[in-house]
Amino acid sequence: MSAHGTMPRRLWVNALLVLCALLAMFPLLWMTSVSFMAHGEASHFPPPLLPRQATLANYLELFAQAGIGRYFLNSLMLALAATLLSLAFNVGAGYAFAKLRFAGRDRIFKLLLGALVIPGQVAMLPLFLIMKQMGLVNTYVGVLVPAAASIFGIFLVRQYALTIPDALLEAARLDGASEFRIFRSIVLPLLAPILVTLAIFSFLGSWNDFMWPLIVLTDKDLYTLPVALASLSREHVQDNEMMMAGSVLTILPVLLLFLVLQRYYIQGLLVGSVKG
């Protein structure tokens, strides 16, 4: 096929991709638009696409009256702590399952993979009872315990760590390097793409988590942003514009995080899927 024949096809494909992207982004764009509308403006039929006069009143009300700043900081602190804990536990376990030899390694890993089919909601009741016996209910420690390690995170790191040549690790051992130094100086730099991928997953999971903080936290001052917005929506059920402003505040940090780190995220997923 000639170059002149492939050019129109490329244009059609690109136009179709742009259309699909716009359709996927339309709810997000409309939500952002509604957040700048005046009170009651979005309730008209048909709903307007753009505000008649953009205003920051909804955002100012959220911070001034609803105290959304406190809940934003609560969620940010918990998400960062959950990300650090996830990296510490999942990276160490994933590397151990990939490159270290110990009794029952493969059998334990298969059991972990089998547990992936169990829904997380099933474990919430026994986990809550354990947290209650340990006195961790209504504390941030109780919120962070389930986020400290995940089977999916261990699996993700293990699959990527399998691509590290064994000869490289053996050469370091022959030079007298300890296992900790090998892990710190050789393994961690090589795992950088998957570390970013895991960090994104962990941050997103903790930031968007609604059910577990709702169960564990009873003090309103400790609420995370999703729980606070759900509570606020019951009080302002007709105030669509302010609720949309709260939704924008919830989505904006994770969207910016993904856009900044998307190159490492995609690289981690692609390279980690090469070897099984």
Could you please describe the fold and organization of this structure?
There is one protein chain. The protein is mostly helical. Helices cover 71% and strands 0% of the residues. The model has no long low-confidence stretch (mean pLDDT 84).
What tags apply to this protein structure?
mainly alpha, 276 residues
Secondary-structure map:
Blueprint: H1 3-35, H2 57-64, H3 68-99, H4 105-114, H5 124-133, H6 140-144, H7 151-161, H8 166-174, H9 179-190, H10 192-208, H11 211-216, H12 225-235, H13 240-272
Shape: globular
Could you give the count of β-strands? 0
Order of helices and strands: HHHHHHHHHHHHH
Regions with pLDDT < 50 over 5+ consecutive residues?
A: none
Largest sheet: none
Subunit arrangement of the protein: single chain
User: What does the radius of gyration come to?
Assistant: 24 Å
Structural class per helix/strand content?
Answer: mainly alpha
Subcellular location: Cell membrane
Main location: membrane
InterPro entries: MetI-like, MetI-like_sf
Membrane topology: Multi-pass membrane protein
